[in-house]
Design goal:
By secondary structure, the chain is α/β, with parallel strands linked by helices. Helix content is 38%, strand content 17%. It is built from 12 helices and 9 strands. It has a 7-stranded mixed β-sheet. A two-stranded antiparallel sheet has the order 1-8. α9 packs across α10. It binds S-adenosylmethionine. S-adenosylmethionine binds next to β1, α3 and β3.
Length: 286
């Protein structure tokens, strides 16, 4: 269905299906007609690619993806949107909607079942309340995805693309730079959404290379360490790790010392290689 950025069309759909926005689900729908075609084109929605979309809303981006991609599998948590999507995506036979929480779905299995023989990309206007958890989840599973293109709020975009080390970095910065090099493609003003949020957004993209730019011996434990390290901003590394893992402070102190770092160091002062060293000296003390 065309015109899904037209406010009157959206209002009509809402009235017909008795739908109202859920703030808790981060429902800010795109109404700027130039944004979705741009995301679809830059996000590799083409005849070689199967695309995973996270959070469809009324299907405004899904439409643009379906026009271009070989196949689209879109995951949407809100079951009230299902009848609307039945209407707005009716003309496409290459779209599958899954009514589920993306954090609870087995994406490896979904990819095996739905995208045999295709390259895979992820395109989404992410719900802002779980931007980082979704990105970390996509990264940590080493899914066979070649490119991720996502709209996020400005602050999340700054965090994703922050330098390492820097005060702006967080666990998600480390995770994304472990596998890739994120970049901001373009900015999107708050007025492009309905309802309009209090902040602007941007579209961030990263290609995934799993050919071991970095190599933690135990990757799952490395990511657990990184999450714990950045769980309490501005605390020292020893305090964050002993609280977040959790682990005895004296053992954490020993591990930090063995990694060749001062005991007063803060997580935002560390490089990825230093974080890998700390995760390895910690692992030996578990
Ligand atoms: N793609 C649409 C657009 O651009 O207008 C909607 C984007 S809106 C920012 C985020 C969407 O994600 C909403 O439709 C919301 O219901 C959905 N959502 C929120 N949490 C989710 C979750 N855990 N799993 C899947 N979808 C989720």
């Amino acid at each position: 269905m065309e015109n899904l950025t037209n406010i009157n069309v959206i209002r009509e759909l809402f009235e017909k299906h008795g739908f109202s926005f859920s703030k808790a689900l981060g429902q800010n729908f795109l109404v700027n007609p130039s944004v979705c075609p741009k995301i679809a084109e830059l996000g590799r929605a083409d005849k070689d690619h199967g695309v995973i979309e996270i959070g469809t809303g009324v299907g405004v981006l899904t439409n643009e993806l379906a026009k271009r991609a070989k196949k689209v599998v879109a995951i949407e948590i809100d079951d009230r949107l299902m009848p609307i999507l039945g209407e707005t995506l009716a003309e496409y036979d290459n779209v599958k909607i899954i009514n589920a929480d993306v954090m609870k779905i087995d994406l490896k299995r979904l990819i095996e079942d739905e995208f045999q023989g295709m390259k895979i990309s992820v395109c989404a206007n992410l719900p802002y309340y779980i931007t980082s958890p979704i990105i970390m989840m996509l990264l940590e599973q080493r899914l066979p995805i070649d490119c991720v293109t996502v709209m996020v709020q400005k602050e999340a975009g700054t965090r994703l693309c922050a330098k390492i080390p820097s005060r702006e970095m967080g666990a998600v910065t480390v995770a994304v730079n472990y596998f890739s090099q994120p970049k901001v493609l373009f900015n999107v003003s708050r007025g492009s959404f309905m309802p309009s949020p209090n902040v602007d957004s941007c579209v961030v993209q990263f290609d995934l290379h799993y050919e071991d730019k970095y190599a933690a011996a135990d990757e799952a434990f490395f990511f657990k360490t990184v999450r714990a390290a950045f769980s309490q901003r501005r605390k020292t590394l020893v305090n964050s790790l002993s609280f977040g893992l959790p682990m005895d402070k004296s053992k954490v102190n020993d591990a930090i010392g063995e990694a060749g770092l001062p005991l007063t160091v803060r997580p935002e002062q560390l490089t990825i290689d230093e974080l890998i060293s700390v995760s390895e000296t910690l692992k030996n003390r578990m």
